[in-house]
Specification:
The protein is of the alpha/beta class. It is about 30% helix and about 25% strand. The strands form four sheets. It has a four-stranded parallel beta sheet with strand order 9-2-1-13, with helices on both faces. A three-stranded antiparallel beta sheet has the order 3-8-4, covered by helices on one side. A hairpin with a 2-residue loop joins strand 11 and strand 12. Helix 1 packs parallel to helix 5. It is elongated. The mean pLDDT is about 95. Bound molecules: flavin-adenine dinucleotide. The site of flavin-adenine dinucleotide has 30 residues, from helix 1.
Amino acid sequence: MESSEFPKEADIVIVGVGGIVGSMLAYWFAELGQKNVIGLEKSSVIPSDLGSTAHASDFVYNTTHDKLSNWTTAYSRKFYEDNGFFLKKGGLEICRVGDYERWEELKRKVGSGKAFGTNVKLISASEAKEKFPLLDEDSIMGAMWDPDAGLVVPRSQDVVSFAVESAKEKGSLKTLTNTPATGFKIEKDRIIGVRTKKGIIKTNKVVVASGIWGPLLGDMAGVPVPLSPLEHPLLFFWTIATN
Ligand SMILES: Cc1cc2nc3c(=O)[nH]c(=O)nc-3n(C[C@H](O)[C@H](O)[C@H](O)COP(=O)(O)OP(=O)(O)OC[C@H]3O[C@@H](n4cnc5c(N)ncnc54)[C@H](O)[C@@H]3O)c2cc1C
């Protein structure tokens, strides 16, 4: 349920509460006992249908080249597992025949995995095909196999609902949909309010969790936010034959 009255002030305002980052922030604020948190969302629904979370393929891979990301991924995976949102299937990162740079990168990744405690390893092309029979064995050199990789299920958006509802049940969070932050009220270099078309919410703590729109919010506060979108291919597979 949304609050009917427009809130005049808040201890904390989250901008973009309908994505995975904003919603999980709301969840943890509530767990920590924080009250009077307002979550703004420009979409008309929570979970949001606008942002990256609504479009993600929901994979969880465990190994990157920095310790903090490995740790946060392991923490997130455990959170999803504990709350029934994780399907551990394992994951492959393949290397095409002749792509020696990619092969070196996968070797480095296995090194990072060993250093940071994940279970990745390199496997042969035939082992990769055993795990994913649609692969053309002759066109790959091999793959990196992560037995602990998996999917957030049913979707990351369901985690958003879970997190937001939990924060509301604890009496910590109120959300406002169709309510984008349109600017910040700033005095002596400090934020004292968030502007929306419906009015200003007085606050001195704002968390910007607006994903790809981050630089626009940064501009409103006079703070450059370095962020650039990336494209990557994505294919979905379904069962193609049943007996
Ligand atoms: C096609 C695709 C596939 C992906 N696959 C994976 C994957 O397999 N594994 C993985 O880990 N990651 C994946 N990602 C990346 C992942 O989805 C994102 O990193 C993550 O969802 C970002 O979450 P977020 O909460 O920061 O942003 P978002 O989900 O974009 O949420 C930001 C929210 O802010 C709101 N907002 C924006 N401006 C305002 C404003 N002014 N006022 C109020 N609200 C505002 C938006 O409406 C939105 O709801 C994928 C992304 C895409 C696009």
